[in-house]
Amino acid sequence: MNKGDTRPRKKTKGKRTRGRLLDRLHPVESASVLGALLEMHPELAPDAEELARAAMQEVDVEAVAATVGDAVCHFDMDDLGERSGRRRRGYVEPTEAAWELIQEAVAPFLNDLERLVDLGFRKAAIDMCTGIVLGLYRAARQSTDGPLAWAEECSAECACEAVSKLARGSASVGHERWSLPRAILDKTPDWAGMLDRVANQR
Fold first, then answer.
1. Domain locations along the chain
2. Is the pTM of this model over 0.85?
3. Which of 29, 88, 112, 153 is 20 to 30 A away from residue 179, measured at CA?
4. Per-residue pLDDT, 5
5. How confident is the model at residue 11 (pLDDT cuts 50, 70, 90)?
6. Which pLDDT tens digit goes with each residue over 120-173?
7. Long-range contacts: 99-102, Cβ < 8 Å, 24+?
8. Do 140 and 159 form a contact (C-beta atoms < 8 A)?
9. Following DSSP, what letter does each residue of 27-62 receive, concatenated?
């Protein structure tokens, strides 16, 4: 090959560039590309369905717990100050503002839990609920300031909401009532009785 012949190098570089481009897509862009690809090649739909099913059922309990904990603990007193005090709708108590912040932080995880329950993914739903409860329990016991200190009961209430969505949601879509494993309740001793009652409420 001549020294000035760069054709093979250009081809390799082109492949690397395409790979990097796909890796750098935002979730919305990835979804758009996938949708366009399936429109062009509808025969790939069954394979895409199976890949999606497998991906959604891979739930790491500890990863969920860590993410939930980070979500509810990253607020500080400045965040609380921006939500409380005099507002157009009146005066907002710091406790009310703290509850709003924490509930908003937990909402995306509860939405993911509902989706897994609706799809009938039992293990994934239980793992998601377990991660949410563990993350909230640990955060409530580690945080001594910020919104969590102003809304001491909020973490427990959010955990109860997760358990309720798991139990009642599974029953409403025709499954047996799903609940947290006993081993998980043993790891949340201060909440165990409360969570067990919620799981068995009709």
1. 1-56, 59-200
2. no
3. 153
4. 52
5. very low
6. 999 999 999 999 999 999 999 886 667 778 888 999 999 999 999 999 999 888
7. 99/151, 99/154, 101/75, 101/147, 102/72, 102/75, 102/147, 102/148, 102/151, 102/154, 102/155, 102/158
8. no
9. HHHHHHHHHHHHHH-GGGHHHHHHHHHHHHT---HH
